[in-house]
DNA sequence: CGATCTTACGGGATTCGTAAACATA
DNA sequence: TATGTTTACGAATCCCGTAAGATCG
């Protein structure tokens, strides 16, 4: 009647079924033989049928016992597999990790980190979102994402932030552009040239809008585009200049283009690995953040 | 560290994972909420990682918890399936049965019983051996066979025997054979005609040899063949007569042949369902033996 | 008589439920 | 403050190991 059979009882049953001896199975299982007897009896009671025919010198499986053995052997395999898998997961040997990054980070830093991470953790399955920073934080809050690589400004305390590197703003222009003569430029230098911006309200966009408005009250971009690739292409044809983050240029096609760092205030932002403070981190998170730090230290464009 | 997780703990974990509430899960599982808390804690300890993030107003799965849930859901299905299957097996709804029969029974009675049994127990899987009675008993002893349908003579006490029907010896001959004029024959009537026998040392063969030797000291068959079909064919062509059991003729081609019952002593044998006395019978055995009795009662050729 | 399983029994660990404490929205 | 989880603790239960009993070769 009762449906409570224990893993241990099944293990013990299989030991007896294998050895066809209570005493040997007890020794093998490191329990006393009477205790084993009782366990088998309990199991038989819960099943409602004898599993073994025991005579003084001979133990043999009944028909029900044989059937039960046939069913339990794959079951034990499954249980052991679950055990093994969860151990590997807990010990951060394999697992799943959901990563988000804001657009500019997704364009340069994040892919490099993921590639680097997978060389040392080939069994890990990474799901990646490239979304605006606000969306990343929302995904974090909802628990859809384990860690976000985003610019950090005014994060609430519930978010745990580990700084990775400073991402400088640069102005991108054709190689023969007048500004290319200067070693550094500042926000004021930019106001004379038509701007091309990415349409989405990214943190970069907001910063540029704010700073440009300060030096040119009725600032408006000449063009708005959806993708960074389009933006660079338009700059290359001489339609204007644009502000991007230094870290995102590593993966871009920069032929006939050059860039200059912007000097002054609000000319960089701190990029961090952000996770939820009050949630237990996935075991892989530590090693992933370490990979982020390793990449940010070892790669010149993130320094 | 410890690798002991209980079925119950997994059930409780899944309940909490489903409801995301300790109190609801406790109520659903009919245990107190603190007890549930403790079980989850034990499970977490044995896994070595937190499964839930609990805050006062909010319970959510950790990454490890999600992974564990993904692994446990199919595991629970498997466990429930084992439960269901073993229940069906114990309650004789489905299962396996290994049947053996001696050659003459395998030729007529056994197939009819099996066919009849499968109409009422379509889920049962029957394995069938047709072997000499001695071999059948050997298979019984070795536990390879659950029940044997064999002639019973001098069985030891370890064998449990349930009588089914009397199988009479008959002499088979061409329709125009001189003996066909008689309503009954006796062993002495047979000595004047050439005998054809089946080669194997079946119980039938042994009986015939014994009885014929009594009436004809240097009795020897004119021909020995391997199969009953061959024997009948040779009788049909007039090469001799042969003794078979009545029950085995039902399935045979008897064109141009007729048979007469042998009168006197040692002219029949008792056919029984034989199983091991000291072994727990498979749950299906009872119903199978009942099917044997039903067939032997309802079919005229077994009366 | 020896090997092997079962029963009996006492002690220790486990587990449960009630009640109180604790933590957040 | 109200809701929901954890801690504390006493009692009941479970489970194991030792020792004795039973059974068959």
Note down, in words, how this protein is organized.
- The structure is a homodimer of 303-residue chains.
- With 303 residues, chain A is an alpha/beta fold.
- Chain A is built from 11 helices and 12 strands.
- In chain A, strands 3, 4, 5, 6, 7, 10, 11 and 12 form an 8-stranded mixed beta sheet that branches.
- In chain A, strand 8 (196-198), helix 9 (203-215) and strand 9 form a beta-alpha-beta unit.
- Chain A starts with 6 loop residues before the first helix and ends in a 5-residue tail after the last helix.
- The model of chain A has no long low-confidence stretch (mean pLDDT 92).
- The first copy, chain A, binds a DNA duplex (25 and 25 nucleotides) through helix 3.
In short:
Two copies of one chain form a homodimer. Chain A has 303 residues and is an alpha/beta fold.
């Amino acid at each position: 009647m009762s449906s409570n059979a224990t893993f241990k009882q099944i293990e013990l049953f299989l030991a007896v079924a294998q050895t066809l001896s209570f005493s040997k199975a007890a020794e093998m299982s490191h329990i006393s033989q009477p205790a084993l007897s009782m366990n088998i009896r309990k199991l038989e009671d819960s099943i409602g049928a004898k599993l073994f025919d025991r005579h003084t010198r001979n133990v043999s499986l009944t028909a029900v016992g044989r059937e039960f053995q046939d069913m339990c052997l794959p079951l034990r395999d499954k249980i052991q597999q679950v055990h093994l898998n969860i151990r590997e997961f807990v010990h951060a040997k394999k697992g799943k990790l959901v990563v988000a990054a804001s657009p500019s980070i997704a364009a340069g830093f994040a892919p490099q980190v993921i590639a680097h991470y997978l060389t040392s953790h080939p069994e890990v399955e990474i799901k990646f979102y490239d979304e605006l920073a606000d969306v990343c934080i929302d995904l974090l809050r909802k628990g859809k994402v384990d860690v976000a690589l985003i610019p950090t400004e005014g994060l609430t305390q519930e978010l745990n932030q580990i700084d990775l590197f400073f991402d400088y703003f640069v102005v991108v222009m054709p190689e023969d552009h007048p500004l290319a003569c200067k070693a550094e430029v500042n926000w004021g230098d930019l106001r004379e040239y038509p701007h091309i911006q990415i349409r989405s309200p990214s943190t970069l966009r907001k910063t540029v809008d704010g700073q440009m408005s300060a030096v040119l009250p009725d600032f408006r971009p000449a063009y708005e585009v959806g993708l960074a690739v389009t933006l660079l292409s338009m700059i290359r044809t001489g339609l204007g200049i644009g502000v991007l983050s230094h870290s995102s240029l590593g993966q871009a096609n920069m032929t006939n283009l050059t860039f200059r760092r912007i000097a002054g205030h609000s000319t960089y932002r701190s990029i961090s690995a952000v996770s939820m403070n009050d949630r237990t981190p996935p075991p892989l998170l530590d090693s992933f953040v370490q990979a982020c730090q390793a990449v940010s230290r070892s790669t010149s464009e993130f320094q």
